[in-house]
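Anyone up for a design puzzle?
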């Protein structure tokens, strides 16, 4: 499967060949720290685990504009084309609205999002009081990205293992979920700890894919 096919399958609670190896992003201060700690300078983020530059996401914004965001390049979406050309297109767009980016507490917002026709949220900021597993329990059909506590990753391998093992097995198995940090990688995360996190996360994704075949 290609990246788009994986994304569509995961977000529709279907079974892809594996989940996506994505990451939210990185603060400039984080990258500067990682360069000092051994990450080689590049024109893109090719050397960072979870940042394959060939991976991209095509989506429609609220105005029906078709756009593409390519991992490892500018964060500004690339305009592709208009998708609303008829009344039927507009109705389809309303039915397929996907996600909203919210860094706050989602307890009272998710019901409103669902009522408005939105079907997904990200990045599930833990520091705002969001509980990834509780959100999944309450909203089993909600599409979710994120929810991995970046500050736990900064505390090293043992905390990382607890964070991943406590959340990912059920979330990956249930579908409708793409694992990544609950916001851009914080400067408190060392290059070594980030690499460990991505290696463990990628291994769990591959293991889950193997178990589902």
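Challenge accepted. My sequence:
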């Amino acid at each position: 499967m290609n990246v788009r096919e994986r994304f569509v399958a995961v977000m529709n609670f279907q079974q892809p060949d594996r989940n996506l190896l994505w990451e939210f992003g990185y603060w400039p201060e984080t990258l500067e720290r990682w360069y000092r700690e051994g990450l080689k300078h590049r024109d893109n983020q090719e050397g960072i685990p979870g940042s394959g530059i060939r991976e991209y996401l095509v989506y429609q914004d609220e105005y029906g504009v078709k756009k593409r965001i390519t991992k490892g390049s500018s964060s500004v979406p690339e305009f592709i084309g208009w998708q609303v050309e008829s009344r039927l297109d507009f109705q389809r767009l309303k039915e397929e609205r996907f996600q909203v980016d919210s860094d706050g507490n989602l307890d009272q917002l998710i019901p409103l999002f669902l009522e408005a026709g939105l079907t997904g949220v990200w990045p599930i900021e833990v520091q705002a009081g969001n509980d990834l597993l509780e959100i999944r329990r309450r909203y089993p059909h909600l599409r979710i990205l994120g929810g991995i506590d970046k500050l736990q990753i900064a505390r090293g391998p043992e905390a990382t293992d607890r964070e991943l093992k406590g959340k990912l097995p059920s979330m990956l198995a249930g579908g409708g979920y793409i694992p990544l940090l609950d916001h851009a990688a914080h400067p408190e995360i060392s290059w070594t700890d980030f690499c460990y996190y991505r290696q463990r996360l990628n291994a769990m994704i591959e293991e889950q894919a193997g178990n589902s075949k």
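A detail worth pointing out: The chain has a mean pLDDT of 83.
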